[in-house]
Amino acid sequence: MQGTVDGFSYGLVTPLVAYLMACLGGALGLRCTTRSMLVAQSWRPGWLALGSAAIGSGIWTMHFIAMMGFTVHGTPIHYDKSMTFASLAVAIVMVGIGIFIVGYRGARGTALFTGGTITGLGIASMHYLGMASMRLDGKLEYNTFTVGVSVVIAMGAATAALWAAGQVRGFLWSVGASLVMGLAVSGMHYTGMAALSVHLHGTAEPTTGESPAALLAPMLVGPLAFLLLAGVVVMFDPLMVMGKPTVAPVEHRPGIPAHTHTAVPHSAHRLRFRPRRAVEHRGARTPQNR
């Protein structure tokens, strides 16, 4: 028996809140990635790790807030707690791999493509692992083509977001990129949900696992507290808000090799010609003194 699937049982409330959570995690993660490109090598891993955790927590929270509005008529839905939080770990680790690649190799060429691909696959893996944590009296079936489209959306969104983070521009630039990333992650989620159909077994056997109400508290309190703390770090770091520092050392920026012959400041040009004029002036006065 085919089950009736409803992904908007609370109307537009869950999609909007889920989108805002994806934007918040994306904004914090992209600013941390940008910040890592403005510091010395010793500080870079910390900022990249913070960015990975922010983006992973944001998309994971977005997914399960959206899933609160997901119902299947004819069967209750429960969740396996261990698999649910395993999807959070997968999201953070795979997003982290992509961010570290871009953070150390630069947001261009092969590094950008590799990092965006891995990050996008991490987003998609989190989504489908989270879906696999559902326990209900039925079988989940997916349309292969629509699933492929959702994965492509995730990869494209991740690549575009990492490219934006690698531009090392101001705060508003990253905010715009996070809005696009939030829209793409939400689009990937609902595209994946459109690929889903549920075939009910029609048995009276009780389902096992945690209920959505039991998962709501740890799901929201933990990641939301972390995102708020990350937001405080962002707000109290001037470089996170202003963007580029006054002088950005070339040798500390990823993807740009250090050159021995750098551009000479304007003041250095003036210093180079002053001794020459002084020598010529003394040479002109020498015959007069004699």
Fraction of residues in β-strands: 5-15%
Structural class estimated from helices and strands: mainly alpha
The gross shape turns out to be: elongated
How many distinct helices? 9
- Quote the average pLDDT: 77
Order of helices and strands: EHHEEHHEEHHEHHH
Report how far the terminal alpha carbons are from each other.
115 Å
Q: Tell me the major beta sheet.
A: 2 strands, antiparallel
Strand order of the largest sheet: 1-2
Strands, count:
6
**Radius of gyration based on Cα positions:** 26 Å
Question: Which features does this protein show?
Answer:
6 strands; mainly alpha; single chain
Characterization of this structure:
Helices cover 68% and strands 7% of the residues. The protein has a two-stranded antiparallel sheet with strand order 1-2. A two-stranded antiparallel ribbon has the order 3-4. The protein starts with a strand and ends with a helix. It is mostly helical. Helix 2 (44-67) packs antiparallel against helix 3, helix 3 (81-105) runs antiparallel to helix 4 and helix 4 (109-132) packs across helix 6. The relative contact order is 0.16. This is MHYT domain-containing protein.
